[in-house]
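Final report, Chapter 2: Outcomes

The project's central promise was a pipeline that accepts a single protein chain and returns its three-dimensional structure in a standardized token representation, suitable for archiving and comparison. That pipeline is now operational. To close this chapter, we reproduce one record exactly as it appears in the project archive, with the input sequence first and the structure output second.
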Amino acid sequence: MDDLDMTQYQPHYAYSDSDDSEEGVTDRFAGLKEQVYHDKLEALKGQLAQLEEYTHPEYCKKIKKVDQVHKERLRMNEMWKDIEIQQAESEYVLERQLALRDFEEKKAELKENLLLELEEKRKVIEQERFSLDLNGDSME
């Protein structure tokens, strides 16, 4: 710590012991106040310049956080999209299986109905033939 140059820590204003009167103290106080004001103003101008250059540390921290949140949201959205696609594909497969099963059931039902109908028609035709045979025998 001995190697530090203490001149860099000296304030920008000068102080002399010769102004010990009340008026001198008031002037020094006003000067100090003015100097503090200008120092703060310069610091704020520096921060404003950093903001305009997008290099202010607080701004950079917040931008980094916003960027991380943005990346996380994109990742979550991608995962959500994948889940939704997977769910839609599963629903499609299930609906297709149900439709195929329904189709096969209806097909079997139609086949059975057609066979029953044909069987009924065959019986009617046989009955007509039998009755024609009976009628034909009586005419001879």
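Archive annotation: The radius of gyration is 50 Å.
This record, like all others produced under the grant, will remain available to the consortium after the project formally closes.
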